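Page 47, continued from p. 46.
Same chain as before, 547 aa.
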Amino acid sequence: MPTPSRPWPLRPPPEDLQRRYLDDGHWLDTTLGAFVDERLRATAALEMRIWSRTRPWRGTIGDVRAMAYRVAGGLRDAGVGPGDVVAFQLPNWIEAAATFYGASLLGAVLVPIVHFYGAKEVRYILAHTGARALVTAASFRQSDYLAALATFRGELPDLATVVVAGDEARVAADQMSFARLIAAAPLAGPQRVDPSEPALIGFTSGTTSDPKGVIHSHHTIVAETRQLADMQADRVLPHLVGAPVGHAIGMLSGLLVPLCQEKAIHLLDVWDPPMILDAMLEADLTCGSGATYFLTSLLDAPGFGPEHLKRMTRIGLGGAPVPAAVADRAAALGISIIRGYGSTEHPSTTGAKHDEPAAKRKYTDGHALWGVELKLVDEDGNPVPVGQPGEILSRGPDRFVGYTDPALSDAALDADGWYATGDIGVLDADGYLTITDRKKDIIIRGGENVSAAEVEEILMRMPGVAEVAVVAAPDARLGEHACACVRMQPGHAVPNVDAVRAHFAAAGLARQKWPEEIVGVADFPRTPSGKIKKFVLRAELRARAAG
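Result:
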């Protein structure tokens, strides 16, 4: 069995839990590549389609399987082997699906990068993981990936191979086109690696200024896929997925769960409600699950009507706050709503099914899922009574096996396998969880985490800024957005949004992380030690939004 190309700082659950997960069938003695191959073969005759105004594609899952084996062969010929890191930054194009499946077949460690990440994030991720290969688009919408890469590739000695999808005219001499990559002879079959080793590293914003690398083993990511497919087993129609496959939600719902459910795969590269409404009718698809925005943007779109509504009778929401008003609106239209809670670290922590009580589905975030355990504790780590708020600790077969930074693992994982989520919730007497607040310093914008610390660090470099606190403000469309509360130095005016945007553009940070609201303050509410009370700022913003 191949040896990992680097010693990852893994923090798997304790041995008794590992035995339990194996004995109970939560963990399978298989790799992600072998699992993917088996499911690709089982669904080979089903349709695979990319909905795009610029790069549409249509074929079968079998066609994608053949392409994925050529991707694996091309990476092999480039010197990439089992345990090596293969990163990709691609929109929801066919190349993204083929790269994900192909690198899995090769036994490589996958590092998906969301397509809207900028030069700052991508440079950090590639350097931090020691990526051997990167598959990237030449450009997409406002992002010029090759221009950004040119500014820092010389700093990445491990990055031996760059593959470019899209504009082949821009492929440099030290790069190769995707067409050239898949001209290789296909890999003979899935490469065997140790299922306890890393299969995938997802990067997510959190309390640190740089993205956090979340390591999932073959055991945990296959368990997560099977768990989520089981929770969504009552879905009848194929799901048109607009969430990026570089993010956990899009990767699971777009590339993995349909294989388990034996459903056609439909991906969308730009969230485009008019196109989506047409696609739903043309191909008989459902859509609207995921972050709240995916549902409300369709309900509000011109042209939405009864023919769309009858394809949206069962919707799952999660990844961002779900206002009760949205759940009530959906119910009034005859849409059954279920809510779920999870994270890149523990993707499917709680959820529900559509036959559970309406009040639980609409107004709580569900109950612990297959193999998952929950514990709510106070600030001293003691369990809190039912109905009382506490920090959520979770563990289960789909919980990650550590961060790439061991110091982060030390802070979040204990010896018994519990993950300290940093979220605050309440458990009711029936075991249903409701998220009420968070300890971790993030904003969840349309299902994407934004690190307050990362935004604050860049804002502090603006002339005249003395102190800043970035917090989540309610957002009717996206759930939350970043609000920057700033205290200025004497003689300096609070910058307007346009000035802040220009500053963040120059810093190379993804647009989704830019503050969308600026509030000037004379001083901040503080603890006796001088620490800013962000919970007070969040409460004030919620009260203001409520009118």
